[in-house]
Design brief:
single chain, Arc Repressor Mutant, subunit A, D-Maltodextrin-Binding Protein, domain 2, two-stranded antiparallel ribbon, 10 helices, 10 strands, 41% helix
């Protein structure tokens, strides 16, 4: 059934006047009459009662007017929804990110996305280092924000931000500033560190720090979760090396001592993914 004929019918059912309706829908009166007759022939029923002076709906016409108005609104909504999906303005995107940027750059990134695409659904997850690329390649996530450089085939990466490592100690700790650090003073500490992942460029930066002081740290505990490490440092169970972006996490009772070691933050995505939602977000984040 021709959707345009239904629209002509609904327009005539409102005006109940062929000339006015034809003018409104921008066709000739004879063309409108032919369209209505074709619709009646297709349906096998009469929609309007006509005479020289009046046009009025038949009972069947009244019924179809009520039903088609609702259906047409629904169809137009569906078409608009589909167009928004096609343009990448509506849909769902799953983003994996490290805990360290939850209170630093993530709120700014999400604010940009929601302002530009208010109909978009965003799902945030945190994924273990060893699962990140697998989740990305198998479409379990759409974007992976990481501190690790990848050369994996089929994955594209681009740096979006850099911050520095910091030594995290309780406020009452003897370390007050960077100048307090030495091979001897660091060797006497118990460390709580992020899990040392094989092949992780972020882990290599932390190890480079220890090599610069020429000592092997006494590691009391490893954890994937920075919030856990912070809680243990606050409890006095050791000191930690973490990105200084954790300073945004409202961590009372702790001191962050900046270290001269930079850690980059990168966005990773599938090179062959043509999802318009993904394309829109990448363009927005990179400012292209």
């Amino acid at each position: 059934m021709d959707l345009q004929r239904i629209k002509y019918f609904l327009a005539l059912s409102e005006q109940l006047h062929y000339w006015k309706t034809a003018e409104k829908v921008n066709i000739t009166q004879s063309a409108l009459s032919r369209q209505i007759q074709s619709l009646e022939n297709e349906l096998g029923l009469q929609l309007f009662e006509r005479n020289k002076r009046n046009v009025k709906l038949t009972p069947a016409g009244k019924f179809l007017k009520e039903k088609w108005e609702v259906e047409l609104n629904e169809i137009e909504y569906i078409h608009q929804f589909a167009k928004q999906i096609h343009l990448g303005e509506r849909g769902t995107i799953t983003i994996a990110h490290p805990d360290s940027i939850s209170a630093s750059i993530m709120p700014d990134i999400l604010a940009k996305i929601t302002e530009a695409f208010p109909q978009l659904q965003i799902k945030l997850v945190q994924v273990l280092y060893e699962n990140q690329l697998d989740f990305l390649k198998n479409y379990k996530i759409d974007l992976a924000i990481t501190r690790d450089i990848t050369s994996e085939q089929g994955i594209k990466s681009k740096k979006i931000y850099s911050d520095h490592l910091a030594l995290v100690v309780p406020l009452e700790h003897a370390f007050k500033r960077f100048e307090d650090l030495s091979k001897e003073s660091l060797r006497a500490q118990k460390f709580i560190l992020p899990t040392k992942d094989e092949g992780s460029s972020y882990s290599e930066i932390i190890q480079a720090l220890f090599k610069s002081y020429d000592f092997v740290p006494d590691v009391f505990l490893h954890s994937e979760f920075g919030s856990t490490i912070i809680a243990l440092v606050r409890k006095g169970l050791g000191i930690a090396i973490l990105p200084d972006s954790y300073m945004h996490h409202q961590s009372p009772g702790l001191r962050f001592i900046p270290l001269p070691f930079k850690t980059d933050i990168l966005i990773n995505w599938r090179a062959d993914d043509h999802n318009p939602v993904l394309a829109n977000i990448l363009k927005l984040v990179f400012g292209d």
